[in-house]
Design goal:
38% of the residues lie in helices and 21% in strands. By secondary structure, it is α/β, with parallel strands linked by helices. It has two domains: 4-248 and 451-476, Aldehyde Dehydrogenase, Chain A, domain 1; 252-437, Aldehyde Dehydrogenase, Chain A, domain 2 (3-Layer(aba) Sandwich), CATH 3.40.309.10. The strands form five sheets. Strands 14-15-16-13-12-17-18 form a seven-stranded mixed beta sheet, sandwiched between helices. Strands 9-8-7-10-11-19 form a six-stranded mixed beta sheet, with helices on both faces. The chain has a three-stranded mixed beta sheet with strand order 1-5-4, covered by helices on one side. A hairpin with a 2-residue loop joins strand 4 (20-25) and strand 5. Helix 3 packs antiparallel against helix 6 and helix 9 (262-274) packs across helix 10 (294-307). The longest helix has 20 residues, at 41-60. The structure holds nicotinamide-adenine-dinucleotide. Nicotinamide-adenine-dinucleotide (NAD) binds next to helix 7 and helix 8.
Length: 483
């Protein structure tokens, strides 16, 4: 009998959905991994009613009690490390070692966010009027809608659930229709440790997310995904004026200015480019390199890319897993094929589907390095979201800066140099939310995470910034005497 995962509403699975969808293993499209019922409008309404009802008690829970519940939730998730890692690899595709690292990072970020439950302290500035004491306080915002993509099935949902709950909100989450399994394992942990209604899980695609975002019961929308979907959510929120935190795409650059050990730098850059088969918003996809190092760099990149083991993420030794879905693979193939037809472009390695004999139905793509491109070529301007890297030469640091800042994205970047003044220039002038000097683009678990321009709107997640989205601020003027 088919085992259908329903919506998790008020800690119960509801069997109402009529429309069924399945998830497929990207390493073997013949294998169905999960079967889910898509949320109906009634499910969405029930999720919001339940989350609204649960909000008051969760908000009013004394902070140490809320913190204790969140610690228990954390432990329940930690006890499911391996099932979570397997759920990631089986639906998303990344090597199991990367999935384990993703779960560990999500737990570390959660630990930081949960500790903030104890620190929502506010301020008490002196009043301007005689005898007055002023206060600045914060309150939880209310019901938060969380919409997440398919590339980090544990980390991204937890990045929203953890600060959301820590600051006293309730959450209605709609995970990606390609990778919902992990969120349901997190839902089980919530069922065992948190009051009903604090986390509600809805299954489905963009139509479910869109209906959720349009409800006036939603006080804040936290979204991670593509720029195009982010724009749709932005316009939907104009009706309800819900607060927004949008984390969107990137076209991230690594600038190699000089290096004592160029091959080691290239390895570091390729790590940041090809983890998760390049399907990371923070993946490096443009390598901007000083002209004198251009040939040497492309030679190193070709050598590193060609040696990587492409295969099923569950197979030991796999370094590059499959592309998560057929639509994404088609997008990558389309851009690379059109680039191949340009006379000036030079594909120095990869450029086609990878053949993995043991997995003939897998969505594999070869790590690909392209050079010789012009600034307006789509491989340079579009987010490809796959294992494809473009190498671009420059003559001086000001030209490098102009190339790096030429696109509307502004998520993250990396600069490699031993010259302090060059590092300072990039630190001050790169138009990205995050800047890494002399290492790849992996962020810390307690640092603000986000982008500027087309890469993000609203408060950054993680770190101290999250409080600005997950709470509202109140200023109070309080005289000492009687009226
Ligand atoms: P997507 O925008 O297609 O989908 C993301 C989520 O939005 C899914 O849950 C989807 O069901 C939902 N959705 C689709 N249409 C919607 C609508 N009209 N209204 C509301 N929700 C809707 O993105 P994806 O393909 O799942 O993920 C890849 C993209 O995500 C890339 O562009 C990547 O850069 C971006 N991303 C950004 C970050 C970041 O932190 N900046 C992190 C990961 C991924």
């Amino acid at each position: 009998m088919m085992n259908v995962t329903q919506q998790l509403l008020n800690n119960q699975y509801q069997a109402r959905g009529e429309s069924i969808f399945t998830t497929l293993n990207p390493a073997d499209q013949a294998e169905v991994v999960g079967t889910y019922s898509s949320a109906t409008q009634q499910d969405i309404d029930d999720a919001l009613i339940g989350a609204t009802a649960a909000f008051g008690a969760w908000r009013d829970l004394p902070v140490f009690e809320r913190y204790a519940a969140l610690r228990a939730f954390h432990q329940a998730i930690a006890a499911q490390r391996e099932p979570l890692a397997e759920a990631i690899t089986r639906e998303q595709g990344k090597p199991i070692s990367e999935s384990r690292a993703e779960v560990n990072k999500a737990l570390q970020e959660a630990e930081f966010s949960f500790s903030q439950a104890l620190q929502n302290t506010g301020a008490a500035p002196a009043g301007a009027r005689p005898g007055f004491r002023n206060l600045v306080t914060r309150r939880p915002r209310g019901v938060i809608a969380a919409i997440t993509p398919w590339n980090f099935p544990v980390l991204t949902p937890m990045r929203k659930i953890s600060p959301g709950l820590a600051h006293g909100n309730t959450i209605v989450i709609k995970p990606s229709e390609y990778t919902p399994a992990a969120v349901h394992i997190i839902g089980q942990a919530a069922r065992d440790t948190l009051p009903p209604g604090v986390i509600q899980i809805l299954n489905g695609a963009g139509d479910v997310a869109s209906a959720l975002c349009r409800s006036s019961a939603v006080k804040g929308i936290t979204f991670t995904g593509s720029v195009a979907t982010g724009r749709r959510i932005f316009s939907a929120a104009s009706d309800t004026l819900a607060a927004l935190s949008l984390e969107l795409g990137g076209k991230n650059a690594a600038i190699i200015h000089d290096a004592d050990h160029l091959k080691d730098v290239c390895k570091m850059v390729m790590g940041a480019a090809l983890q998760c088969a390049g399907q990371r918003c923070t993946a490096i996809s443009r390598i901007i390199v000083q002209q004198s190092l251009y040939d040497q760099t492309t030679a190193h990149l070709r050598e590193i890319a060609s040696a990587l083991q492409v295969g099923d993420g569950m197979t030991a030794g796999t370094e590059i897993g499959p592309i998560t879905n057929a639509q994404q693979l088609e997008k990558i193939q389309g851009i690379v094929e059109r680039t191949h037809r340009l006379r000036h472009a030079e594909i120095i390695c990869g450029g086609r589907r990878a053949d993995v004999p043991s997995r003939p139905n897998g969505l594999f793509y070869e790590p690909t390095v392209i050079r010789g491109l012009k600034p307006d070529d789509e491989a340079i301007t579009q987010e490809i979201f796959g294992p494809v890297i473009c190498v671009i030469p420059y003559t001086d640091q000001f030209e490098a800066l102009q190339i790096a800042n030429a696109l509307p994205f502004g998520l993250t970047s990396a600069v490699f140099t031993n010259d302090f003044s060059v590092a300072r220039l990039f630190m001050e002038r790169l138009n990205t939310g995050m800047i890494h000097i002399n290492h790849g683009t992996a962020p810390d678990s307690h640092m603000p995470f986000g982008g500027i321009n087309d890469s993000g709107v609203g408060a950054y997640s993680v770190g101290d910034s999250a409080i600005n989205f997950y709470t509202t601020e109140h200023t109070i003027y309080m005289p000492s005497g009687r009226v």
